[in-house]
Amino acid sequence: MGIFDSLSKQGGSQAAQRQMNPMQMMGQLRSDPAKMLGQAGFNIPAGMNNPQQIVQHLMQSGQLPQGRLQQAMQMAQMMGRK
Predict the structure, then answer these.
(1) Which of 5, 16, 59, 82 could form a disulfide with 1 if both were Cys (CB 3.0 to 4.6 A apart)?
(2) Which pLDDT value is given to residue 76?
(3) 32 DSSP 8-state letter
(4) Which residues contact 48 (CB under 8 A, 6 or more apart)?
(5) Is 60 exceeded by the pLDDT of residue 82?
(6) In sequence order, what are the residues at sequence separation of 6 or more whose Cβ sits closer than 8 angstroms to the Cβ of residue 76?
(7) Other beta carbons within 10 Å of 9
(8) From the centroid of its chain, how far is CA 42?
């Protein structure tokens, strides 16, 4: 299961998230990563908005396994190549 699957299946407004395509989800993730990941069920400390800090926190807390991070990075690279 990829990170986009997690984001679309967990927490938050599930109906609205299912209607978003991956590009829309990526845009929302870029604009407010803590909110989007929080809605997906990840525990992000209040005030943490730096993407690198968020990823580091998720990995250190065991919420994001290394393999899933690599999948998400590959997907992001593929989306950026268009």
Answers:
(1) 5
(2) 73
(3) -
(4) 34, 54, 57
(5) no
(6) 26
(7) 13
(8) 9
Contact 20, 28 (CB under 8 A): yes
The answer to whether 2 and 71 have CB atoms below 8 angstroms apart is yes
- For residue 63, the model assigns a pLDDT of 93
CB 51 within 8 A of CB 33: yes
Residue 77 in 3-state DSSP? helix
Asked if the model's pLDDT at residue 81 lies above 80, the reply is no
Give the per-residue pLDDT at 9.
53
Tell me the mean pLDDT in the region 10-26. Answer: 64
* Residue 17 CB coordination number (10 Å): 20
pTM greater than 0.90: no
Cβ atoms of residues 55 and 69 within 8 Å = yes
Can you read off the two tokens belonging to residue 6?
């997690």
